[in-house]
Structures are given as C-alpha cells and as structure tokens.
C-alpha cells in the first residue's frame, strides 16, 4: 500500500493495525493463554542517531530521546519496533527475556543484547551496564519479527533494525557487518514511515 504522503492517515493506519493485531477476546492486562503478551502492552522502541560520533540509540523513554535530540546532537529516527516495557511485573511478561542496554562513553556506543554472557564480555571492553531496556521474545512467536544487529568497526556503532533491506544496505554501502538476530520484537509498518513521537 502506498502511504500517499499523508502523515495523519498513515498514523491512523498504524493505530488501526495495532488494534487489529491484538487478541480481541483478551482484556487489557490479562495474560493470553498462548504465552503471547497482549500486544496492546507494547510500547515504542524509539530510535535516534548521532552522526558525528556515529551512535544509534534506542529507548522506550521519550524523554531520553528528546534529551538526546535537543542537547546531544541526535536525530530522532522514529519507532524501530514495538517492545514490552521494562516495568511489567514478571507475571505480565511470560515468554519474554530482558534486553539489556550498555553504553561505552569512550567510543560513544550503545549496545543491546539479551545475552548475559555478552553483558559480561562487553563490560571487559569498557561498556557500562545501564538497565533493562525492554522485554522481548527470544524466539519467533506471537507475530514477532527479527531484530537484526549490525556493527561498524570504523564508527564503533551497534545498529539495530527489523528491516532486512535496511540491514543489507548498511552492509553494502555503509561498512557495517551483520551480527545476527538479537531477539524478536513486534513489527512496525514498512520502513520508512513517519515519526510517531510527535503525533
Ligand atoms: C526517562 O528519562 C528521563 C530523562 O533521562 C528520566 O528522568 C526519567 O526518570 C525516565 N523515566 C523513566 C520512567 O524511566
């Protein structure tokens, strides 16, 4: 479908699609029996980019994105995916795993992984553990899609996208190397799409 350049229409389409993908008979807050979380609990995983230091930054906290955009030279790049918020209690997030966030202030790089052993090895490389960024699926269930990880050694940048074409473009044209699938997240509409932070 062509977006016809109309942001309000497209935002509506997004909202409509999200409503359709929820399980109708499940009330908000119920834990669906299939082990899938109610997709209405998912929140925006916001993406921002700092071209000078070459850093992709992802957060569910819009204040953090705004701070990065207004004060730290990042550009908002919209919603990378839908993920489950860090504050969900354990009984509300079955079938998910934590996505850990780390940051290396020397090389200005945000790094995300579901692997605790990678957290440990990143620490030895100068990364600080920051927080659980979100909860995500670690297998391809419940309508989720792969979140790919790429790395640029020249930019010391970890880059995450659900778009296979964006990933292959980063490899072909921007010097990134594929590092596989980090986890599975709920999809956004076809890239590119309007920035929903401001809507
Ligand atoms: C979101 O980020 C802001 C700014 O960094 C911080 O003050 C606030 O505590 C964060 N909110 C949550 C819910 O983490």
Short description:
The chain is α+β, with helices and mostly antiparallel strands and 199 residues long.
Can you put this structure into words, describing what you see?
This protein has 199 residues and is of the alpha+beta class. It has one domain (7-185). Helix content is 23%, strand content 34%. It contains 4 helices and 9 strands, in the order H-E-E-H-E-E-E-H-E-E-E-H-E. The strands form 3 sheets. Strands 2-1-3 form a 3-stranded antiparallel sheet. A hairpin with a 4-residue loop joins strand 7 and strand 8. The longest helix has 15 residues, at 7-21. The radius of gyration is 17 Å and the shape is globular. The model is unreliable at 1-33 and 191-199 (pLDDT under 50). It binds 2-acetamido-2-deoxy-beta-D-glucopyranose. Pfam families: DUF5648.
Helix and strand layout, with pairings?
Blueprint: H1 7-21, E1 43-50, E2 55-59, H2 62-71, E3 75-83, E4 96-104, E5 109-113, H3 116-124, E6 128-137, E7 145-152, E8 157-161, H4 164-174, E9 177-185
Antiparallel strand pairs: 1-2, 1-3, 4-5, 4-6, 7-8, 7-9
The chain binds 2-acetamido-2-deoxy-beta-D-glucopyranose (NAG).
Residues 61, 63-64, 67 line the site of 2-acetamido-2-deoxy-beta-D-glucopyranose.
Pfam families: DUF5648
Signal peptide: 1-19
Keywords: Signal
Spell out the key features of this protein.
signal; binds 2-acetamido-2-deoxy-beta-D-glucopyranose; disordered C terminus; globular; DUF5648; three-stranded antiparallel sheet; disordered N terminus; alpha+beta; 23% helix; 199 residues; DUF5648 domain-containing protein
């Amino acid at each position: 479908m062509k977006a016809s350049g109309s942001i309000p229409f497209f935002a509506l389409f997004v909202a409509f699609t999200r409503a359709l993908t929820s399980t109708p008979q499940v009330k908000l807050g119920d834990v669906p029996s299939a082990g899938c979380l109610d997709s209405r609990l998912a929140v925006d995983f916001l993406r921002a980019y700092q071209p000078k230091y070459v850093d992709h930054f992802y957060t569910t906290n819009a204040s953090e994105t705004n701070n990065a955009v207004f004060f730290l030279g990042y550009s908002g790049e919209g919603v990378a995916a839908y993920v489950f918020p860090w504050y969900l209690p354990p009984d509300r997030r079955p079938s998910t795993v934590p996505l850990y966030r780390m940051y290396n202030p020397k090389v200005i790089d945000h790094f995300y992984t579901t692997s605790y052993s990678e957290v440990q090895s990143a620490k030895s490389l100068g990364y600080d553990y920051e927080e659980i960024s979100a909860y995500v699926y670690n297998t391809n269930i419940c309508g989720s899609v792969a979140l790919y990880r790429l790395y640029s050694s020249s930019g010391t940048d970890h880059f995450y996208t659900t778009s296979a074409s964006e990933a292959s473009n980063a490899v072909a044209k921007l010097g990134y190397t594929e590092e596989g699938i980090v986890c599975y997240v709920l999809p956004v509409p076809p890239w590119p799409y309007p920035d929903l932070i401001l809507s």
